[in-house]
Amino acid sequence: MPSELTYLRVHNFRRVRPGTFIAFEPQLNTVVGRNGTGKTTLLALISAIVRNNVHEFIHEDFEIGFGLVDGDLSFEGVCRNQCSTRPGNGGSELLLSGILRHGELTIRINGDAHEAQLTYQGREQLTRSVGPERDPQRHAFELIHNLRLNLPDDDPTLRALKMPGPEGVAGDVLRSKSFTSTRIHEGVETFDELFAQDTDHRDRSPTLGVTLATHPELGKIDTKAVANGHHLTDETLLPQLDKQTSIIDTLTLDGSAPPLAQFIELSQYTDARLILTKTSATTKDGGTRLVFAKPVVRFTTTSGDELVHPQLSFGEKRLLAFLIKLHANRHTIIVDELANGMHHSWLERAVELLEDFGTQAFLTSQNPLLLDCLPLDRETYGRAHGLVVCELSSSGEMIWRNLDEAEREDLLRSLDVGLQQLSAAMRTKGLW
Ligand SMILES: Nc1ncnc2c1ncn2[C@@H]1O[C@H](COP(=O)(O)OP(=O)(O)O)[C@@H](O)[C@H]1O
Ligand SMILES: [Mg+2]
């Protein structure tokens, strides 16, 4: 299960004011502020914590606190990277400490690259490292990769905490599928990443593709063995696989695949299909592992012509990338400048989808359009949705914060009256 980010506390990071604390709500979190106040930087940080990959910041010193919650499990941690002091260790040393809670049980974790100390119920245990796991080739620098709590089996409370799967309990609460919760950039970079045609197809590649396995006995696709690390989930794939009589060199998803169906609903196109090409087949133990990649989408126009994905407009590319990422991970989405290139009706629908899915979304905006599409009111503010304001102090420090009590009340009062839209109300109050 992916977890929800509840807060960030910045002790030390670039020019952010030390002690900065931002609370996040379970659904729409919108970050506003002028150019250069750190909105994109904040999203990068959120993405690093949510997907457990601090690769982007390995060459910097930082100390960040965070809270993650997944049902009954929660983790409050601090991760600290020190580059300057460890020139020999690839230039950095990442430390993680925190408390994992599950009901009455609390487990303290204190670790570095070599080992971790766990303390729970008066017992202490040394385990293997909880991180960092560094893999420059995969651009991964995982904080909590190895956090498998080797909890003793003789204790029923602890045994109940153990979950199936190799990651173990903490791994489950702290990990989310790596590439699906990268941030959607403000331009078409994410679209380009998704449609990259390179041939290096690892299961966790950021491109759009899929790894399938054939069943050793049946000789056909084993739908239980679909590896969906390439942005296509079971919900999108399985109904499509059912329709394919034989999959030889290509795999085609038709216009009913959710991201395509929603794109067709909103855009000028009447149909779309995604074609993936088989790029490798390896046989092991009688079963074959097939990788389908090199994504191409063909669109049908109202006049019956065909278009391919590189020909889409800027806004169409952004909408399609958004829909693909949203369906790849309905739990979490991180979108920089969602309103860029998007028509009002698209934005409204995008916000509606996020609400329907109950997605925890982190959005930024320079554009009043997005704010006016947000379902913010006295009922939802601070419960489901929230705002983060980014500012610069006179000395150039970045100040990231939620609204204070007075600002919040003032803003909600304007919204209660219903005469002012959110963007106008925020501008009047000097919040934006
Ligand atoms: N890699 C970096 N290291 C240090 N500072 C950076 C880096 N990238 C950007 N900055 C600084 O952070 C500021 C805020 O950038 P950004 O987060 O993109 O702002 P916004 O999205 O609000 O316009 C930039 O004006 C720049 O001074
Ligand atoms: Mg920005």
Strand order of the largest sheet: 2-1-4-5-6-7-8-9
Runs in which pLDDT lies below 50 for 5 or more consecutive residues are 136-150, 162-177
Q: Please give the alpha-carbon distance between the first and last residues.
A: 36 Å
Overall pLDDT metric? 82
Could you please describe the fold and organization of this structure?
The chain is of the alpha+beta class. Among the domains are: 52-175, no CATH class; 187-323, no CATH class. Helix content is 24%, strand content 31%. It contains 11 helices and 20 strands. The protein has helices spanning 39-50, 156-161, 168-174, 189-194, 234-243, 258-266, 314-328, 344-357, 368-373, 405-417, 422-428; strands spanning 4-13, 20-23, 28-33, 62-70, 73-82, 93-102, 105-111, 115-120, 123-128, 133-135, 140-142, 210-213, 250-253, 271-284, 287-300, 306-308, 332-335, 360-365, 386-392, 398-401. An 8-stranded antiparallel beta sheet has the order 2-1-4-5-6-7-8-9. Strands 17-18-3-19-20 form a 5-stranded mixed beta sheet. α6 (258-266) packs antiparallel against α7. The longest helix is centred in the C-terminal third of the chain and has 15 residues, at 314-328. The relative contact order is 0.14. Mean pLDDT is 82; it is low at 136-150 and 162-177. Bound molecules: adenosine-5'-diphosphate and magnesium ion. Adenosine-5'-diphosphate (ADP) binds next to α1.
